[in-house]
Amino acid sequence: MTKNQKIISAVVGIIFIGGIAFLSLLKGNIPKTANTNLALEKKPVEVQQEVQKGKEQPPREVSIKAFRFGYEPNVINATKGEKIKINIENTDVLHGMRIPDLGISGNEVLEFTADQVGEFSWYCTNMCGEGHRAMQGKLIVK
């Protein structure tokens, strides 16, 4: 065995022993089985199950086509407390949406919780031509 191989073996041994010592600190003792992975495999599964138990409902996705000079559809109905994700498909140039009364805007995606009842107008966020100012739609939250 060359001098470099001895050094590498020594370093690997030290890292291995340090790893075992670290695991024993985490667990309170060194596992008595040869397969130490058995004790470690449970933790990620338990964490994953806890996350799934507390998992929130995904938002309702609404796809909107934005084009010169309108939206399709141009009305979205929602229920108070509902999570909404609006996916904007810009078909010609960059348009986007801005709902000033709710303080939200975006060019491709808007994600929010409809927490206020009412009718909220939205507008194009990017100058897209002469009809830009007429480009709007409505969010109705009941």
Q: Overview of this structure, please?
A:
- The protein is of the alpha/beta class and 142 residues long.
- It folds into two domains: 3-53; 60-141, Sandwich (Immunoglobulin-like), CATH 2.60.40.
- Helix content is 30%, strand content 32%.
- The protein has two helices and nine strands; from the N terminus they run ααβββββββββ.
- It has helices at residues 3-27, 37-53; strands at residues 60-67, 70-72, 75-78, 83-90, 97-99, 104-106, 109-113, 118-123, 136-141.
- The strands form three sheets. It has a four-stranded mixed beta sheet with strand order 2-1-4-7, with no helix packed on it.
- β5 and β6 (104-106) form a beta hairpin.
- The longest helix is centred in the first third of the chain and has 25 residues, at 3-27.
- The radius of gyration is 28 Å and the shape is elongated.
- The N and C termini lie far apart (78 Å).
Walk me through the topology:
Blueprint: H1 3-27, H2 37-53, E1 60-67, E2 70-72, E3 75-78, E4 83-90, E5 97-99, E6 104-106, E7 109-113, E8 118-123, E9 136-141
Give the structure's gist in a few sentences.
30% of the residues lie in helices and 32% in strands.
CATH topology of the largest domain: Immunoglobulin-like
Largest sheet: 4 strands, mixed
CATH superfamily of the largest domain: Cupredoxins -  blue copper proteins
- Classified by CATH, the class of the largest domain is Mainly Beta
Q: Mean pLDDT score, rounded? A: 80
